[in-house]
Each structure stands twice: as structure tokens, then as C-alpha cells.
Specification:
seven-stranded mixed beta sheet, mainly beta
């Protein structure tokens, strides 16, 4: 024990012979702004911002640091920063801001001090105007010869954001006709109340701040109760981007003794009362100032529509642009120039974005201002484009989607495509169905179907043309793999295309190539429904060049046959045509007869007459143009899309 004590004492004496170099591993003291970024975001409406100044290092020196207000230094800093980062920042005048302190003494032990900047939000918002380029420049400076300011932490640019609040929907139009509000021949009374959701949005959410507005119905000449507020106010939650208000339309007030009367046009504004705004910050009342406002009111427009006997077509709504923007720029979240294909059912119009965003949109058939993204959690990151062409396939099997029609979406790929099928409805992720082709060809630009999901066929045209149109049997599959069963030899013309079989004969139809020079009537040499493993060399009859670059759908209404055609005459002329034939007339003959009973551009506000040849205003070099139909009792809805130009919904009726 004695020997251990002597050894320990010796070690202590030995350690005292060496200098204490622990601080040599730390850097000398220096000043710097605590933010890790040189540019930080702040809302002008909060009226203040807090940042920190730190002294880091060994902690052995006392020193002074101060805020540098030199205009020469500020302008030099901004000029250098803007040039290096390709920005256009401008400095807020120093007279509009207040620093709680500008001079700071640090002891040797001091590590950091907070600095508060404040301003009047009303005054500063007016000073900024519509510019989003204003910053509050903070520069720190020290004359100390020991404690220096770090170059990369010597400045901070507080970038100020202005916020604007708007009602998203500017107008909502309803055309009211007897058949939609009066009892039918069987005495069934239609639903006379409709609920509409309006969105109030703030473009730059304010961190931690919530806003509430009262609502009111503006002065109008409409019957009382035509438009009712179901909620008296709308709230954008703290830090949130939007709030929703529900409004009810009651069509019963337009009836007398149960019948629709011929009413004049009504305009009913619903507005947010900006003067009644209340704001909160962390649950406490907050004096929010300086907000700007875009659209404060949504106007509900009501027009009386005369019910005419015979064949009628009306444009229910349209989304289109005559400016340089894409129509989809007016739909929040949509991507421009990614809108190639369309389908619909009795509730929604579906558009898949042809890109790698996986965006699949469902737009309300009643109101295009109401739309949502569909879940795509099972969609793989594969292919040229992850989603490409949506189609609604008929279904009556109760085990699949509850017996309702099924939404299916293709991807676009060089090789074996995938069909994403919403077998559990559109609010659940789709089921991926693999499709084996044994060929590395581009498929999935578009596809078509015949029959139903339980016992039908889908057709994929090979973009490269060598493989023709490949066929896959639909067997109600909700998992596993679909196998190619045959090929319909197609003309050797490269391009996205489709085979549009006639509804009463899978073996006859039309092949059309997007961007191509013609289309062909097709009669298969072997039954496409039962073909297994063999090529099919059809009889081809070239159609008139006028039908080049078109898509075709077929329907029967009031005993007559009709063909709806989406036709791209030129880059600036995308059109819907409807051909009419007698009930016993063959579909090929209807094409040959070319009896056009309706024609309209995709994006004209109104049609002057049944055959309106007015061209579209917006130019688009894209050949992506598509249409699909949905038949509901004695009406047919037609959705037509032209890439980057417009999307329109038409309604066809024939009340003889």
C-alpha cells in the first residue's frame, strides 16, 4: 500500500512538469451571427424578428461588437450578394425599423446576446408594395484587435414576405333547366339542395398566426334563400394555408307549384368581411396588420336554360387559357404541359399528369373548382412517366369496387407496363397489376378497353409501331400479372396511338396515331377476344385524312348512334365533333357519312351555333388530345382535353 501511495504522488509531481495545453485545441474568440443561413424568412405582418450574436471560442477575451448602419457598406454587401446568388434584394430604409440595441459589450464568459428588430407592419407593407425583394440587412462589426468578426457570419439578410388572402373561386355558374329540378315522368323528385365548398387561401402562411373572417351574402336580386351560408365564418388555422366555408344552393326557391319558372339571370356574391378579421398567435389575440387582399368575393351566377326537344349539346364547364399560360396554371397544384389523357365517371373527371410527379387528379363533374389528388402510394418510380393514361372500365362484379366501375391508370415505359387499378375505390391506393409483354417497346402513352373489367380486353398501342397493338385479357384480376395474348398488326407509323373498337364488335374499330397523317378502319382476321399467342393481321382501310390525329368514342341515345371525336386540325385548333347515324347504321358507315351535328373548339367560352368553327385562341404544339364519355340514363357526358390548351365537359341529351 505504501508503495502505491509513493507511485501516485510521483505521478502527480510528474504531471506538474507539463504545461496545460487544453485550450490549444480551441479556436480564438470570434463574433458571428447565430443563424446558420445568411438569408432568413420573416413575415412583415408579425412586426418583429429576433436574432442572436454569439462570441465563440476559448472564452478568454472581453470585447465589443455593434450593428453597422453604414449605407455604403450595406449597398456594397447587397450588390455583392445579388451578383453571386442571382438575386435582386433591396434594403429596407433604416428609418422604418427599430433595433432594441445596437452596441453590445461581451465579457470573457459571455456566449450570446439576443437582438430584437421591430417595425410597423402597415407602414412597412405599404413601403414594400408588391415587391418580394426587400430585406433588412444586418451587419456586425468589431474594432477589437483580438476578437474578430467571422467573414461568413458577419451579416444576415432578413427577407420579408407579404401575405395576401383571397377566395380561391371567383365565380361559380349554374345553368338551371326543368329536367334537373322538376319531378320526372315517374314522379321522382330530384335533389334540390347542393352544397358547395369555398376555399379561403393565404399565399404566404404566417408562422404561428391564425385568421378568422366573418362571411356575408352581398346585395342581390335573387329570391331569398337561393344561396345560404352553412357556416358563418371561415378560419385559417395558426400557420395554415387555407380554410373552407360551406355554402348551400337551394333550387327549390326557383320553383312555383313544383315547376321551374323562367327567371332572369341572378348574381349572388358571397364575400369575406375583411374588416371583421380576427387573428391569434399561440391561442392569444394578435393585432395582425398589413395584409393585402386579392379576390374577396365568389359570385354565384344562375341562368335559366330552356329545355329544347331533340338533340342538344351544352358545354357544362371549361378550363382554358388564351394567354401564354397553360389552362392547368389556373388549377392550384397542377403541372403545366402534363395533361395528355382524360376519363370520367358519374362523379369525377380524371386527369393523370404525364411526368414523374405521380399526380392523379379527380375534378368534380358538377364544379371544376372542386378537385383533389388521388392516393398513389403503390405507384412505382419506374418508366418514362410514372402515370400516363386514366380510363374508367365498366364493372358489375360486387367483389370489385363494390360493383362500381373501376378507374385504371397506365404508366409509360420502355418494356413491361403496369396497370394501376383502383379496385377498392378512388380513396384507397391502387393495386399494381403487372403486364408481361416479352418486348422492350414503349407502351402506355394511351390505352383503350372493350367489354368490362371481369370479362373484357385492354389494348396498348406500341409507340414504336413494330409490335402493333398488344392485347391483354381482363379477368377481374386484383393482383398478379396480366399476360399479353396477341398483337393486332398496325400500320408502321410511329407515335402514341390507340385502337378504338366498336362497342358491339371487338374485332372492328379504328386505329389512330397522335401526330400521324391518317387513321384506319380495322377488321381483325382473328377474334381479339379469344386470340392466344398469335399475331393478327387485320384488314385495313385508310380513312379520309380529315380523321388523322383523332380519338373516337361511341354511344347510342334516343335510338340513334353517335360518334364523339376529339380532332386536332392544327396546333391552334383542337375540336370536339359529334357525328350522328341511324340506330341500325354501322359505325364505319357513320364515319363515312360524316354527318356532323355538333362542333366546337375545346376552349371557346360559348358556341355561336351547333356547328361552331371558331378556332381556339391558344397555340400548342403538343399532339396530346383525348376524350372519353360517360352515359347516365338519357344523358351523355363528354370530357375533352388538349394538352396545355384546355379541358372541357360537354353534356349531350336527345329528348324526342
Amino acid at each position: 500500500m505504501k508503495r502505491l501511495s509513493i507511485l501516485f504522488a510521483g505521478l502527480l509531481l510528474l504531471s506538474g512538469c507539463f504545461p496545460d495545453d487544453r485550450n490549444n485545441f480551441m479556436v480564438d474568440d470570434s463574433f458571428g451571427i447565430t443563424s446558420l443561413d445568411n438569408v432568413v424568412e420573416a413575415s412583415v405582418h408579425k412586426g418583429s424578428y429576433v436574432f442572436g450574436i454569439a462570441k465563440s471560442g476559448k472564452g478568454q477575451s472581453a470585447a465589443n461588437v455593434r450593428i453597422n448602419y453604414s449605407q455604403d457598406d450595406i449597398q456594397s454587401l447587397l450588390a455583392s450578394y445579388n451578383k453571386e446568388h442571382n438575386t435582386e434584394f433591396k434594403a429596407v430604409m433604416s428609418s422604418l425599423i427599430v433595433m432594441d440595441k445596437t452596441d453590445f459589450d461581451f465579457t470573457a464568459e459571455d456566449a450570446a446576446k439576443e437582438v430584437a428588430i421591430s417595425w410597423d407592419p402597415d407602414i412597412l407593407a405599404r413601403f414594400m408594395g408588391d415587391s418580394e425583394q426587400y430585406v433588412i440587412p444586418i451587419l456586425i462589426q468589431s474594432d477589437d484587435q483580438v476578437v474578430k468578426v467571422k467573414d461568413n457570419r458577419s451579416f444576415l439578410l432578413v427577407h420579408l414576405n407579404r401575405s395576401s388572402v383571397s377566395l380561391k373561386q371567383k365565380s361559380i355558374s349554374r345553368s338551371v333547366e326543368k329536367k334537373n329540378v322538376e319531378p320526372d315522368k315517374s314522379g321522382n323528385v330530384p335533389q334540390l339542395q347542393e352544397t358547395v365548398s369555398l376555399d379561403v387561401e393565404i399565399d404566404n402562411p404566417i408562422e404561428g398566426v391564425g385568421i378568422q373572417y366573418p362571411l356575408e351574402i352581398g346585395t342581390n336580386d335573387a329570391p331569398e334563400g337561393l344561396v345560404k351560408l352553412l357556416t358563418e365564418s371561415v378560419t385559417i388555422p395558426e400557420g395554415g394555408k387555407s380554410g373552407t366555408v360551406r355554402v348551400e344552393i337551394d333550387y327549390s326557391v326557383l320553383l312555383k307549384d313544383g315547376l321551374l319558372y323562367q327567371f332572369p339571370d341572378y348574381e349572388v356574391p358571397v364575400r369575406i368581411k375583411t374588416e371583421g378579421m380576427k387573428a391569434t398567435l399561440k391561442g392569444e389575440d394578435f393585432d395582425l396588420k398589413g395584409l393585402s387582399y386579392g379576390n374577396n368575393a365568389t359570385v354565384f351566377n344562375f341562368t335559366w336554360k330552356e329545355t329544347k326537344k331533340g338533340f342538344n349539346v351544352s358545354r357544362e364547364w371549361g378550363r382554358y387559357s388564351s394567354a401564354s399560360e397553360s389552362w392547368s396554371d389556373y388549377m392550384s397544384g397542377f403541372t403545366a404541359n402534363a395533361d395528355r389523357n382524360v376519363t370520367l365517371d358519374g362523379e369525377y373527371v380524371y386527369v393523370a399528369e404525364t411526368n414523374k410527379s405521380k399526380n392523379l387528379w379527380a375534378i368534380s363533374l358538377k364544379d371544376p373548382g372542386v378537385y383533389k389528388k388521388l392516393p398513389v402510394g403503390t405507384v412505382k418510380d419506374e418508366g418514362i412517366f410514372y402515370l400516363s393514361c386514366p380510363r374508367v372500365i365498366p364493372n358489375t362484379d360486387a367483389a370489385i369496387n363494390g360493383g362500381k366501375d373501376v378507374l385504371a391508370v397506365s404508366n409509360m415505359i420502355e418494356g413491361d407496363p403496369t396497370l394501376y387499378v383502383y379496385v377498392n375505390g378512388i380513396n384507397a391506393d391502387p393495386t399494381p397489376i403487372a403486364m408481361t409483354t416479352w418486348a422492350s417497346r414503349r407502351l402506355g402513352d394511351t390505352f383503350s378497353w372493350w367489354g368490362n373489367y371481369k370479362d373484357g380486353v385492354v389494348f396498348f398501342k406500341d409507340y414504336n409501331s413494330t409490335q402493333g397493338t398488344v392485347t391483354f385479357p381482363l379477368t377481374g384480376r386484383t393482383s398478379g400479372t396480366m399476360f399479353l395474348t396477341g398483337r393486332l398488326a398496325a400500320p408502321a407509323e410511329t407515335g402514341a396511338a390507340a385502337y378504338f373498337p366498336f362497342p358491339d364488335n371487338i374485332n372492328s374499330g379504328i386505329i389512330s396515331v397522335r401526330g400521324g397523317q391518317t387513321s384506319w378502319l380495322v377488321t381483325a382476321s382473328k377474334n381479339l377476344k379469344t386470340l392466344e399467342g398469335a399475331d393478327n393481321n387485320p384488314t385495313l382501310k385508310e380513312l379520309d385524312p380529315a380523321w388523322a390525329n383523332s380519338s373516337f368514342r361511341y354511344f347510342t341515345l334516343a335510338g340513334k348512334r353517335y360518334i364523339a371525336v376529339a380532332k386536332q386540325d392544327s396546333s391552334s385548333s383542337g375540336r370536339l365533333l359529334i357525328l350522328e347515324g341511324e340506330g341500325a347504321e354501322g359505325w364505319a358507315q357513320i364515319i363515312s357519312d360524316n354527318k356532323v351535328v355538333y362542333e366546337a373548339a375545346i376552349q371557346n367560352e360559348t358556341e355561336n351555333e351547333a356547328l361552331d368553327t371558331t378556332p381556339s385562341e391558344k397555340f400548342s404544339g403538343n399532339s396530346g388530345m383525348d376524350l372519353d364519355i360517360c352515359q347516365k340514363d338519357d344523358e351523355v357526358y363528354i370530357a375533352v382535353i388538349k394538352q396545355n390548351v384546355g379541358l372541357s365537359l360537354f353534356r349531350v341529351s336527345n329528348d324526342e
